[in-house]
Structure formats: structure tokens, C-alpha cells
Fold:
Amino acid sequence: MREILYVAIGGALGAVARYGVGLGAARLFGKGFPWGTLAVNVFGCFAMGMVVGILAGLESPHKVPANPVQIAQWRQGVAIGFLGGLTTFSSFGADTLRDFQAGQPLLALTNVAANVVLSLAAVWCGAAVVRY
Structure:
């Protein structure tokens, strides 16, 4: 139950942050380009890289073992909750990086292509369903 609470609180904060960034970017730069979406995606990926690095350090067998609760708080509250609420693009970035680092570049590139093509197609299909 504690993990769900971490995800819920982090997700709520991430969603509010995404909304605020979108409003701020529209006011600063106008609505001609989705600057807010770009900003949360880039920041979310950068932050996910930091979280992945922190978790790797906490889980490293070469260091003093970290408190499992601390690891869970970072994973559920920050990576899954906050960054997931801010942008799922950060999870996509982390998954793709993991595949590259595991020596599976074809799988990583397939993930990129599948996410981009299928997600764009899904947006188009969703809009078409509503239109008709």
C-alpha cells in the first residue's frame, strides 16, 4: 500500500507540474509550437537519467547496501510517480537506454520506431473516431 501511495503522490505532483509548465510555456512563447510538451519531455528524460543513476548507485554491490525503503521511495515516488505524471516519455527514454546498454541496439531502435509510429497513428485514429 505504501508503494501505491508513493506513486499516487508523485503522479499528482508530476501532473500538476506538467500542467504548469504547459501554461507557462504558452504564455512565454505562444501556442504555435508545443514548447511545454517539449520542455517536460526533455526535462523528464534528463531527470529519469539522474534517477536511474541514483538507483544504480544505491543498488551497487560495491557499496554499502542501501535501505530498500529508500530505493522504493525513489523508484515509486520519483521515477514512476512524479516523472510518469510529468511525462511517460521519460520511461520510454529509460527503456530505450536500458536496451542500448544491454547490447541490444536493434531492440532499442525497434522500441523507438514502434513508439513513435504507433503513438502517432493512435492519435490520428483517436481523432478520426471522434470525428466520425
